[in-house]
Task: structure prediction
Amino acid sequence: MKNTIAICPGSFDPVTVGHLDIIKRAAGMFNKVIVVVMTNASKHPKFTAEERVRMISIAAADIPNVTVESYDGLLADYAALKGAGAIVKGLRAMSDFEYEFQMALTNKKLNPNVETVFLTTNVEYMYLSSSMVKEIASMGADISDFVPEQIHDIIVERLTSERK
Ligand code: ADP
Result:
């Protein structure tokens, strides 16, 4: 696996400590990890693709083998373009399973050269999602346990500005 390029795809709207945990663990398993913000997957994102790429870049700045990009197309095509051998996804609970299983089989059909690898969520983060962060931050709750420290203020400012 060490000589494999891995992709961590997602909407990351915004990136959470749960995402970052998966990214770090993937970086320990593969020699190169590309985190890709999929701009077609999430229909009404709160943050622009540029903002999401920037926030992940800041949060993952200390992981040397991680780069961050965005892509507006099919993940299977992006994997082929990058010569990636693995797609790494985090699995939280049964609710993630059915959709992720279907996506993995579809991607395998579209690009047989790429394997989907599932990492089990860290139990500490299993309840965490970007939607939950957006919902509670916009209502003024403390999200410091849920998002990377370096981008906490950027997220809070953006999500609370709509209330003012
Ligand atoms: P979200 O569901 O939070 O909007 P994304 O579409 O951005 O997530 O997810 C990108 C990847 O990160 C997916 O594989 C998803 O299962 C995984 N992921 C998201 N949150 C967590 C978490 N708390 N723990 C583990 N994996 C997670």
The pocket of adenosine-5'-diphosphate is lined by residues 10-12, 16, 18-19, 22, 89-90, 92, 96, 121, 125, 128-130 (CB under 6 Å).
